[in-house]
Design goal:
heterodimer, A: 189 residues, alpha+beta, two-stranded antiparallel ribbon, 4 helices, B: 214 residues, Arp2/3 complex 21 kDa subunit ARPC3, 7 helices, globular, transport (chain B), cell membrane (chain B), Cobalt uptake substrate-specific transmembrane region family protein (chain B), CbiM/NikMN (chain B), membrane (chain B)
């Protein structure tokens, strides 16, 4: 084996040794170290009821064991999104407050509970993540335009019905008064 | 303009319900003093519907998006019926769309209903202060003032309450800056609601003047 063959063999052995030691998950180059690990992140999306994102809103996260002291603070991005990674050892309901210009809200996110595994966990396989996305889209978007239209229509019809009912009542009342006035005039005549 | 759940502390919400209860009692007493208390119910029901829908009509005024309130219009046209009408409209908005909330129903009724009562009084000034003017000028002028003032006072109450009740968990400076920005966006809306109120009362005066409170 010549010198070149020994060098190639050495590199192959070194790389196989490195992969067996778990170095394949790290990329080392000129002092830059990039690592990755799976975590359970939660993304919230804040919108006005018109669908406009609540951008640059202040966000405060409270852990289940201390609901009075902020666990994390931040702001939403231009799309109204905010991502945080809860401590998996603190199971229970994590509270997230969002506020901007007197508008905002409070939401509770279960972490480590049975409901969380179906709804919130972000470390699910890709097919389950699709289900999670659809869950969020249903809850964040709220009512469909048809549902909203039916609700507005029903309220308007209730108000119009009330107006018609009392109009009839007032009409009868005024006609009774007219009748009594006519009778009074006839009796006087 | 609607205060959501969890924005204000409990003592403010309880105070809001107390003031709303007093205002409702005052309005119902004034209604009961009338010769026929049910006479104003039809127009109150129709304007409740208008108030309910108005919060869904958004106007983009940079840097924010604001929506109609119409509490000044309700005050001018309904008089003492305005506060109960706004209370019912807010209840439907909270239950149906989540605008505001049930815990904040009282304080929201105060924010929008009390200025409506003031707007009703301003609209009555057309007989005392505005009697030197021509009737149609006086009607339009005080209709405008009623509509604009109703929204203006409501906006001041809203921003005053939110600025003075910023939780310590949030950055007060950032929140105040955002609130001032939204407050500025309501100044053009005051003009829009004032003009709209003047147009409505002018129309009612020409078509059916008995609908306006005398």
């Amino acid at each position: 084996m010549n010198m070149k063959g020994k060098l190639i063999l050495g590199l192959v052995l070194f790389s196989s040794l490195g992969s067996s030691l778990g170095w394949s998950e790290k990329v080392l180059a000129h002092g830059v170290q990039i690592e990755h690990s799976a975590s359970q992140a939660i993304e919230i999306n804040a919108k006005y009821d018109t669908g406009t994102p609540l951008e640059n809103a202040q966000v405060t996260v409270y852990s289940p064991d201390d609901p009075t002291t902020p666990w994390k603070q931040g702001t939403t991005d231009e799309q109204g999104n905010f991502v945080f990674t809860p401590d998996p050892s603190k199971t229970g309901y994590w509270e997230v407050k969002v506020r901007r210009a007197g508008h905002g809200g409070l939401t509770s996110i279960p972490v480590g509970t049975e409901t969380n595994n179906a709804q919130v966990s972000a470390s699910l396989p890709p097919d389950n993540q699709n289900n999670q996305t659809s869950f969020y889209s249903q809850t964040s978007q709220g009512l469909s335009p048809i549902q909203k239209g039916i609700m507005i229509g029903s309220i308007l019809w209730g108000c119009v019905g009330t107006a018609l009912f009392f109009s009839k009542f007032n009409f009868n009342h005024s006609s009774d008064q007219n009748t009594s006035n006519v009778r009074q005039q006839e009796s006087e005549g | 303009m609607h205060i959501s759940e969890g924005i204000l502390p409990a003592k403010v919400l309880i105070g809001g319900y107390a003031i709303a209860g007093l205002a409702t009692w005052y309005s119902l007493r004034e209604i009961n003093k009338q010769k026929n208390p049910t006479e104003g119910v039809p127009k109150a029901a129709l304007l409740t519907a208008a108030f309910f829908v108005s919060s869904s009509i958004h106007i983009p005024i940079p840097p924010a998006s604001v929506h109609f309130v119409l509490n000044g219009l309700l005050g001018a046209v309904l008089g003492c019926y305005a506060f109960p009408a706004i209370l019912i409209g807010l209840l439907f908005q909270a239950v149906m769309f989540g605008h505001g909330g049930l815990t904040t129903l009282g304080i929201n009724a105060v924010i929008m209903g009390v200025p409506a009562i003031i707007a009703a009084q301003i609209f009555q000034f057309r007989y005392s202060i505005g009697h030197r003017l021509k009737p149609h000028v006086s009607l339009n002028l005080f209709g405008f003032f009623a509509g604009a003032t109703g929204l203006g006072i409501a906006a001041l109450l809203f921003f005053g309450l939110t600025i003075t009740n910023i939780p310590s968990d949030f950055d007060a400076q950032t929140e105040q800056t955002a609130i001032f920005g939204l407050m500025l966006a309501h100044i053009p809306l005051m003009g829009i609601e004032g003009i709209f109120t003047a147009m409505v009362v002018s129309f009612l005066q020409r078509v059916k003047p008995e609908l306006l409170p005398s």
